[in-house]
Amino acid sequence: MSLAEAFERVHSWLGDKAFLAAAITHIDAKPSRHWTLDAYSTGFPETLE
After folding, report:
1. pLDDT range class, residue 38, cuts 50, 70, 90
2. Residue 27 belongs to what domain range?
3. Which of 10, 12, 16, 32 has the largest count of CB atoms under 10 Å?
4. How many Cα atoms within 13 Å fall on the side-chain side of residue 46?
């Protein structure tokens, strides 16, 4: 599951451009060490703060 799917409502509120910027910031700061995309959602709420 991608961040956009896991945080569908947040994505809708922020819009594509702002959500993408937040996702890039999060992924750059906390790269996943897991093989699945599901792990990327860990800590994303803190990144949004």
Report:
1. low
2. 3-48
3. 10
4. 7
Tokens standing for residue 32: 């996943």
DSSP letters, the chain, are: --HHHHTHHHHHHH-HHHHHHHHHHHHHHS---SSSGGGGGTTHHHHH-
Domain count, the chain: 1
Closest by CA to 3, choosing from 13, 20, 46, 31, is: 20
Report residue 25 as tokens: 């910031």
1 pLDDT tier (thresholds 50, 70, 90): low
